[in-house]
Amino acid sequence: MRKNQNKPDLPKRPPKISAQRKRRRALQVDLASLLSIDHACHGCKKGGKSCCATYEVCVSAAEMGRIIRVLPEAARLCPHLETDAGFDNVFEEVEPGLFAIDTTEDGLCLFAFRSSNTVRCSLHAAASSLGLALEQVKPKACLLWPMIFSEGNEALSLADDALSFSCNSRRRGRSRRLSSSLMEAIETVYGRDVGTLLQKEAYKGSPRAALDHRNSGEEG
Fold it and tell me: Taking the model in full, what pTM does it have?
């Protein structure tokens, strides 16, 4: 966790994983936690808890480059991104190759904007406007949320505070089918084959899965 001066402490959501897990070429997944919820994003309601204002989002150099390319489109919804000299630098290097996206004083991501009493993502909107796939623009950390990589064992699991957001709800009883939204996110980041294999493991009743995959997009 990194403390921002004059801003609330924000848990870090690094999108990149360790080199050790890359070498293994295996996606470790805490299926039990992912199967426990339903997730549906319709934008964060005004006055409610927002993922865009709760976490510090970090991106790789490659992700930062993809974001920079769509800044003109994102600035249509977030005019504060523009300056007299061009576009504001909203990235801060927190460690070699990893950059935190800056926030407002109340912690709201600078790529977020408010529309019809909801908080929306200008990068998501920019991808749609430009006809780009979301993974070509939006950080992996944001695509995967409310899934995160748990610290220590590097497993894809449910964020500890996921149920404090209105977009997530606990399921009644035991389920062996992943929420369609979570499946879509997994397939967007890791590929449809990984989503299919993961759902097969869920049908088997496996509480945890380790899936080999050759093309996860984790290079950045």
Answer: 0.82
